[in-house]
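ok trying this again, last paste got cut off
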Amino acid sequence: MQLLTLLALAALTTHASAVTWYYLDFTTPSGSYITSFSGTMVAPGLPQAATYYLWPGLQPSGNAGVLQQVLDGRSGEWWIGSGWCCSDPDLPWGSGFNVADGAAVAFSNVVDDIDEGTWSTSLSSGSNSATGSFALPTHPMDQAIMAIELYNVTWDFGALTFEDVVIVANTTSTSWCTGGGTNYNNAAVISMSSPTATTSGPATTCSIASIVFEYPA
């Protein structure tokens, strides 16, 4: 897996800096792909203006980039927007909005067709909303990721919570869901509701009521 190398290059900063990663990765079986990924992320309290990136995202099998909804703490107030990071193809970021500490942000990523590969994204929190469209025909997604990405700052904001997470993939396999995903390097203490998998025809829906990144391990 090349997520670490990829996103170190793809980070939203341009200077050399130390990065610390915590993430949970649900990867579908070889040859199968994710068609939608949705849920709610609860913004923790932002302690300071610093390079905190908290996000759900999708990564293709070739690890060429990541389609993500990034909660960004650099300004001293959370801001969230959707984007493909960072090249091949080079796509503009979608619109976004500021997020208050403790606010819940609903996110959604849906592909129109695996072969066509255009992803529609949406974000909403209270009266705020934003949408995006990302044409990624050569990058079918097989990894759904929830991540904490930190540059020259420690995990000092408490727990990060995801709720009502739903991942749909074009496979009848269920173990990729019910196994609970992969906790990168077991770097975070993560509490999770038991994932449930429901298969209908050629697709499996993975549902998880709650995923909480509690603190560094």
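PB: full thing came through this time. The first strand starts at residue 19 and ends at 27.
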